[in-house]
Amino acid sequence: QVMVVESGGGLVQPGESLRLSCAVSGTMFNIMGWYRQAPGKERELVASITSGGSTTYGDSVKGRFAISRDNDKNSIYLQMDKLSPEDTAVYYCQAAFSYWGQGTQVTVSS
Q1: 100 in helix, strand or coil?
Q2: What is the pLDDT of residues 76-86, one digit of tens each?
Q3: Residue-wise pLDDT tens digits, 16-25
Q4: How confident is residue 33, by pLDDT bands cut at 50, 70 and 90?
Q5: Cβ 34 vs Cβ 20: under 8 Å
Q6: Nearest-CA neighbor of 101 among 25, 26, 41, 39?
Q7: Which of 16, 27, 30, 101 could bond 4 through an S-S bridge, CB–CB 3.0 to 4.6 Å?
């Protein structure tokens, strides 16, 4: 019955930035992450973060995206800079490898 809700997606031009938010109802989990899925492609890991602050990033977003968490707000965030059309996808928030949000659309186009 864990609820995971993403927000912050939208349409931006190449080179611009977006900040995604994910709120988890009731509690927080040791491991949280962001995944994305583009049309015709498999869902892939974008970034993850542990309660201790350890982070993991997919190769395609290293140096451009930053994941963070706020335990007091039961939330995680994804700051996305220097966006390119290849970043276009539905972005999903995940808690503890098990609970998923419905996704938020990010479209990068000129």
Answers
A1: strand
A2: 999 999 999 99
A3: 999 999 999 9
A4: very high
A5: yes
A6: 25
A7: 101
